[in-house]
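Hey all, sorry for the wall of text incoming. These are the two entities for the joint prediction.
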Amino acid sequence: MKKIKQITFDITQSRRIKNYAQKQQIKEKELLVKYQNVMHTVYLAWKKNYGETEEVTFRNFFLSVMKYAEFAFRLKERIDDLAKITDHVEILRDALEEYERDYREIIALENIIKEIGGGVL
Amino acid sequence: MKIGTTMFSVKFKEKIPCQNETVLASDLAYYLYFLDVIPKELAEWNLENIYSQRAVDEEEFNSKSKVYSSLFQEYALIRLKANELYERNRTVALTMGLLRQELIQLKEEGIDLPLDYDEAIERVEYFIYRYLTKKQDDRLVEQIVFDER
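and here's what came out:
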């Protein structure tokens, strides 16, 4: 099996890395170290469990890890979104309740004025 | 690790089995966003662990999604209501102005009503200030957009 010690990203991929680093406000170098560490972990896990027999190819294992990570990321996003919408709905509920209460008070005043047949109301 | 001006590369800690470097580079670039969520325990994991963890996560995901979706419905209804209020407030504003005038006039005329004039005027003014001016309660006006999921 062919083995490699290094991988080079093409210009488009490198730009993607650069953009993501900017978005995360970290250095590209940190992302590359992350890649290095992740690949190290994936390799260790694969070697420990399957390396000797190669019953699971490295690529297959790598993709399973990454697909899992993709899902875990979506779960994390969902948890964040849920916290955000929970807070916001709470704020809206309170705001609406307060409005309804204030409006009821005003309508009560209006009705008192109407009862005495006041002016233009 | 060498960082070029336009092309980055990663030096691995060990020799990684790889049949096709183009495909691996493309995969790594694609999965860039998800690197942070790879668990530390992975080093101990085999495929079964990955699948069972995924099953646990999926369950959590589905239950969270259910809550999210019901909150989203409530959010959408309140937004709708807030928009209606905003529309209605344009007509309400006129009535409130008249109501205030009426209260001031009745107070001056000394008409006896089952209300405290000063308090009532204050309340109407508060309502106008709070809901009908540019200083209005921005909680209902503020647009935070959520996606329906």
